[in-house]
Amino acid sequence: EVQLSESGGDLVQPGGSLRLSCAVSGFTFDNYAMSWVRQAPGKGLEWVSGISNSGANTYYAGSVKGRFTISIDTSKNTLFLQMNNLRAEDTALYFCARAFYSGDRTQFGYWGQGTLVTVSS
Amino acid sequence: QSALTQPASVSGSLGQSITISCTGTSSDIGTYQYVSWYQQHPGKAPKLMIYNVSDRPSGVSNRFSGSKSGNTASLTISGLQAEDEADYYCSSYTSSSSLDVVFGGGTRLTVL
What we know:
The structure holds two protein chains of two kinds. Chain A is mostly beta strands. Chain A has strands at residues 3-7, 11-12, 18-25, 34-39, 45-51, 58-60, 68-73, 78-83, 92-99, 108-111, 115-119. In chain A, strand 7 (68-73) and strand 8 form a beta hairpin. The model of chain A has no long low-confidence stretch (mean pLDDT 96). Chain B is mainly beta. Classes of the chains: A mainly beta, B mainly beta.
């Protein structure tokens, strides 16, 4: 059974940093791309960042490029999102999501329950 | 890159059919088959309902169907049931330089 579980969300001041984790089971990163998708309170979904299977390629939304870094640790079956220079507009519930099928990276068949990031002074 | 355009809300009676539209551009829906639809109930994670424009994952009811014409994709739900009441989001791969995936703003479905 495919499972994804996020952690690491917290209250952080503007300009601060945070690292989100997504522990996965039931599949390997060798075969499936992963992404982070966020949802601000009461708002819609926004794709943030993606990483290809095995981590060879990374992709970022313009709003986070240069501030966020996505990575995977295959030995720990964990996906990460390092978030630096956080802004109020980064406040959201962050979901990790797995591509539905191998070979695609843009359609998400499995989601975690999300971890809440609040950026406020 | 702007979000894909969806109506903010739609409604339908039990047993009826509704269609939610999702309008993009030639940089996303108009060119690529990577169009998907998600259902999200309050406080829950999104659930994939349609992928590759019109394919259904195993376990998703055949009351849900997807299609595309030009730059607009559509999700149709037939035989509306109370549990269909939720938010629905469309999504597409985009060749925009500032994004890889673009979502619609979401549509709240109310079942009367």
